[in-house]
Amino acid sequence: MGALAVRGISADVIFVFEPSPVTVGLPAVLLGKIKKAPVVFWALDLWPETLVAMGAVRSQLVLSSIGRMVRYIYDRCTLVLGQSHSFLESIAKYCTDRQKIRYFPSWAEDIFASADVLPANEVVLNKTLFTIVFAGNIGEAQDMPAVLDAAERLKDHDSIRWVVVGDGRKFEWLQEEVVRRGLKEKVFLLGRFPVERMPSFYAHADVLLVSLKRDPVFSMTIPGKVQSYLMSGLPIIGMLDGEGAKVIKDANAGMVCPAGDGKGLAKQVLKMQALSDDERLSLGSNGRNYVVKEFDRGALINKLESLLNEAVVTFRNKK
After folding, report:
1. Is there a contact between 76 and 195 (Cβ–Cβ < 8 Å)?
2. Lower Cβ count inside 10 Å, N or C end of the chain?
3. What string of DSSP letters covers 109-132?
4. CATH superfamily for domain 4-107+297-318
5. pLDDT tier at 230 (50, 70, 90 boundaries)?
6. Is the peptide bond before 145 cis (omega within 30 degrees of 0)?
7. Half-sphere exposure of 64 (CA within 13 A, CB side)
8. What is the C-alpha to C-alpha distance for residues 127 and 96, in angstroms, rounded to an integer?
C-alpha cells in the first residue's frame, strides 16, 4: 500500500513483517516519517548474510551497499525484532542503538493442531509404509541434494516413502534428480497447496522433515515450519544446525542430525521407523506441549501488542 493510498489515515505505529527482502523496510520508514509514527521491524531473515549464504551476491561492493541500506532501515526504526536469539547479535552489527533490539519468535497457527482432518487424496493411503513428509519452500536453503542423498541411501527399503509438498526455485531440479536417481517410486513430489491443506498432508505422515543448508546464517534461523510441525503433534526429524536443532532437542520432539548430512539423515529415519507407535506419539506430544509453552499464538500476540505500545511511548518521548 503506497503513501497516497493511506492519505488521511492516521497511524499510531507501523509494523513491518520481513521474511525477505529487507527492502520492505524502505517504504515503511518513509511512511513513518510522513505519518510521524514509530516503525517496528520484525526480521525473519538476515540481510546481507542470507544473500551470501544463498550465493546470490558475491560482490563485496554490492554487499557493502546492502549493508548500508540495512543500517539505514534499522536506525530509523524504533524497535527491531529478531525471530531467534541468534538473530539479535547479527542485527546489532547493523543497528547503531542495541537497546532497540528485541527477541520475538514466530508462532504456530491453531490449524495445525486439528486432529480430525481427512488424509489428502493426492497421496495414496497406505498404513504399511513409513511416510516422511516435507512441506514448504523448495530452494537453496533447504538443501534438497542432501535430502535426496538420504532417500537414495534408503531406496532399497520398500517400507519407506518420502512425500514432498511445496514449490520453489529448486523444484524443477528436484523433479529431474528424482528421475535421474531412479527414485520415482520412493519420492513423491506433489507441488504447491494452500496452507489450509497442509494438515491433510500431515495426516499421512509418520514423521515430518525439516532441513536447512549448512551455513552460519541458517544456523541462526528457526524455520517457520518448525512451530507448525510441533503443533501438529507429530515427531520431527531435523537435518539442520543451531537454533532450529536446539528447539527440536529442547522439546524432545524428535531426532536431529547435522545440516548437509544425508548419511546421518538416513540413519535417523531408520531409528525413527524402529520406534513403536507409542514412542513416536510421545515425541509428538512433547512437541505440542513445548510449542504451546514457548510459541503460543495468543501469548505472542499479547507480547507483540506490548512491544508496539513500547514503541509508541518511546517514539513520543523522543519528540
Report:
1. no
2. C
3. -GGGG-SSPPPPTTS---TTSEEE
4. Glycogen Phosphorylase B; (3.40.50.2000)
5. very high
6. no
7. 3
8. 56
